[in-house]
Design goal:
By secondary structure, the protein is an all-beta fold. The protein is built from no helices and 11 strands. Strands 2, 4, 5, 6, 9, 10 and 11 form a 7-stranded mixed β-sheet that branches. Strands 1-3-8-7 form a 4-stranded antiparallel β-sheet, with no helix packed on it. The chain is globular and about 40 Å long. The protein starts with a strand and ends with a strand.
Length: about 120
């Protein structure tokens, strides 16, 4: 099993920045493949935000965050990051870290989430 723990959420004014972290631990943490960030706003479905490929480091982003958010990963410490700049009120959501346990499967490990609130 893999335990994902997010941190770094909080309250910030529009235009501000936050950096989310997600640390993976557990016996299988060295068998993590792609990792990503998702978010869920009140009353809305969970949506993809950003992902980083394990084998090629390929980055992908949701269109609305391109140029503002940057995903990165420290393999040595099993930590995933999401640097969020120029935050907007519509970025307000619970942000979840996710990981894949196989290169071809879906995201099957999830963190508990961290709240990000952007005030206008």
């Amino acid at each position: 099993q893999v335990l994902l723990v997010e941190s770094g959420g909080g309250l910030v004014q529009a235009g501000g920045s936050l950096r989310l972290s997600c640390t993976a631990s557990g016996r299988s943490s060295r068998s993590i493949y792609d990792m990503g960030w998702f978010r869920q706003a009140p009353g809305k479905d969970r949506e993809f935000v950003a992902a980083i490929g394990d084998s090629d480091g390929r980055l992908s982003y949701r269109t609305s965050v391109k140029g503002r958010f940057t995903i990165s990963r420290d393999i040595a410490t099993n930590t995933l990051y999401l640097q969020m700049n120029s935050l907007k009120p519509e970025d307000t959501a619970v942000y979840y870290c996710a990981a894949k346990s196989s290169p071809t499967g879906g995201y099957n490990y999830w963190g508990q989430g961290t709240q990000v609130t952007v005030s206008s």
